Amino acid sequence: VQLQASGGGLVQAGGSLRLSCAASGQMFSRYTMGWFRQAPGKEREFVGAISYSDTSYHTDSVKGRFTISRDNAKNTVYLQMNSLKVDDTAVYYCAADLVKFGSRWYVRDHGSWGQGTLVTVSS
Q: CB of 34 within 8 A of CB of 59?
C-alpha cells in the first residue's frame, strides 16, 4: 500500500491541525494504521494507532489532545491534533500494518510509510 500524508503546517501553541493519510490499494481496511513523529535531533516515536475494528491507541503524551480515526470508504486515516504544544513540533509519518510487541509499536517488514508532513508549533 502507498501512503500520502498531508495537513501539516505552522500553528500557534493551543491551536489545532488535522493530518490526513490517503492510502492506495484494496487492503487498507485490514491494516492497523498509525502515526509516528520525529522531532529534530530525536528518534522517531509512536503517536497513535487504530485497528481494522476501530480500536484506537495513543501514546501518553498526546492522550486527551490527539485523536486517531479512519474512514475505510475513503482509504484514509486521520490524526486530529488539539491543544498543540511547542513540543509537538515534528515531522509526522503515517504507516500501515502496525503491530504491538510488549509496550512498543512497530511497522511490519511488509508495511508502508508515508513521506512525512511537517508540523511546527510556535509559542
A: no
**Does residue 76 surpass a pLDDT of 90?**
yes
Nearest to 53 by CA among 67, 36, 33, 35: 33
Residue 80, classed as helix, strand or coil, is strand
Q: Give the DSSP letter of residue 24.
A: -
The DSSP line for 41-64 is TS--EEEEEE-TT--EEE-GGGTT
Cα distance between the two ends of the chain: 37
**Residue 15, pLDDT score:** 98
d(CA 8, CA 21): 11
